[in-house]
């Protein structure tokens, strides 16, 4: 999987992708990462990438020309999708990540300031947001896309890092988990987890998963 990220802060993207499972996947060439510095496509002597919005309003927006030129500078693969981060985009979730895991290439344009000239949407497949909140820039959203898709790719996760029982895979949040010590500060590990009875443990985990979903994410409908 090739990830191309158009951003004003390429070092921010590259730094994150050096660590953890994503860093390992990059080193093992399970994923490829290319960052495109939007400023290099800025206009005029000052490499301008933003301007005031027609009709008035607070703040600046990205101009369409630098965005389009940066996008068209990227060599496209046969199976590729272009995403742009936006507070008004489609909410990113596990289902969305699964939909994109079979692409050869994902291009992410990181929004910033008050948004972007709407005409760039003609050149993208999806506008994407992380949730119902505002960030100062789209880089965190871009990294979330890279992280959540990468870990679904063959060979990125090891056997002990299984996907099967993670949150959202079956419409439920993952059950609570515990490790040593058995008791800390008066807080005890549930007895069933120490019993060795696998059928009872499985039943307990299913019940706890449903209870946690009802408490924390009733919108999931389980």
What can you see in these coordinates?
The protein starts with a strand and ends in a 6-residue tail after the last helix. The model has no long low-confidence stretch (mean pLDDT 94). It folds into two domains: 2-150, 3-Layer(aba) Sandwich (Alpha/beta knot), CATH 3.40.1280; 167-222, Orthogonal Bundle (Trp Operon Repressor, Chain A), CATH 1.10.1270.20. Helices cover 30% and strands 19% of the residues. A five-stranded parallel sheet has the order 2-1-6-5-7, sandwiched between helices. It has 222 residues and is an alpha/beta fold.
Keywords, separated by commas or semicolons:
222 residues; alpha/beta; Alpha/beta knot; Trp Operon Repressor, Chain A; 2 domains; five-stranded parallel beta sheet; two-stranded antiparallel ribbon; elongated
Uncertain stretches:
none
CATH class of the largest domain: Alpha Beta
Count of beta strands: 9
Specify Rg, calculated over alpha carbons: 21 Å
CATH topology of the largest domain: Alpha/beta knot
Q: How many domains comprise the coordinates?
A: 2
| CATH superfamily placement of the largest domain | SPOUT methyltransferase, trefoil knot domain
What is the structure about, briefly put?
Helices cover 30% and strands 19% of the residues.
Ordered list of secondary-structure elements with their pairings:
Layout lengths: L1 E6 L2 H7 L3 H8 L4 E6 L12 E3 L7 E3 L1 H9 L7 E12 L2 H7 L4 E5 L16 E4 L9 H12 L32 E2 L2 E2 L2 H4 L3 H19 L6
